[in-house]
User: Fold this.
Amino acid sequence: MKLVSVVCVALLLFAGSIQGEEQARYDNYRLYRVQAKTLGQLNLLNQLDGSSDSLIFLKSARTVGDNSLVIVAPHKFADFTAALERDGIIAEVVQNNVQESIDHESKRMARRAKGDFNWTEYHELDEIHAWLDTLAAEHKEVETIEGGRSYENRLIKGVKVSYKSGNPGIFIEGGIHAREWISPATVTYILNQLLTSQEPAVRKIAESYDWYIFPNANPDGYVYTHKKDRFWRKTRTPYGGACFGADPNRNWDFHWAEQGTSDRCASETYGGPQAFSEVETKSLSEYITSLKGKIQAYIGFHSFSQLLLFPYGHTGEHVSNHDDLNAIAKATIDSLAKRYGTRYVYGNVYDAIYPASGSSVDWAYGTLDVKIAYTYELRPDGSSAYGFELPANQIVPTGEETLDSLVTLIEESASRGYFKESQ
Assistant:
């Protein structure tokens, strides 16, 4: 049943037009796995990506030898395979009826257990917010904080964890892309461990830094993934007609809309009509700016592909401390691999994954001079058919290995003199 999850992301391209109780169906749509073995084949796939609503690229190949995963509508089977065959590309059918997998996933989600807050299941926004309130009530080191409100007037709620004054600050952002449920699950797992773990290395980072942690930076989108469309990515700002939302990780006011973003509202990477057009990014950025000088590391959590990325995304030109960021990243992913053997790739965004401008981590680095700035792309790897829908039984292992790596990231950064006491 490994294919169940990735095919369900087929809904994402059509989500802007799904209103009320209406649901898209994908009866007899096929899922293809395609590998580009030459630069010419890679270019062809890039041309096909976004060329038609009937070709849904769940994953786009970044380099020669990489795989693409593509859902194809029945009336496009012949045209799609003919286009590939002309360039000598072999397309492997890995699912003949996408709707069957979608139906299976819907039934699984309907059986989701309810109960105490834990990491054996994914949780809805109100459950996460209630848990944050409970932490503040039960731990004197914790206070709830607000990073603003969303378009639909939901709180962007987080917590500050502080064991003593003068600590340097670390900002943790989760859930900026709504469908990436493993992100807020991992962020809440790390938060819980900072409060409860007795491991000396974890206790040291917990108590030596002030933590500003926001599990859900895109609350409207996250709620929408639970109520209407599991694979919605963007915000929920209405932009006319059947178009909703901008990509909140292409909307920050730093080299906005220069690379790897779209000016089409229907696109998953629509950067918005202008920088900080989304109230979520604007209000959260204002909160972060109020902590300028206090925040000395900014870490965002995404999925999927098993990558550890650092600035910049708008250019391949290296930042001033590129060598340090690269060395810290290598030590971090080596640490992550020790527990379960999970392998990550690391590097600056532009070279390691693709050009992408207007991201939160680049903004923190380039605008607020936060020199330790990383983005995790969590499990699964880029070839996995799980895609955005990582099974809940992988939440704890993902959290464990990520916390291992976070300890190393902070230790390595501190050893290079990046953290200083704040006022």
User: Anything to note?
Assistant: The chain has a mean pLDDT of 89. The longest strand covers residues 295-305. DSSP finds 13 helices and twelve strands in the chain.
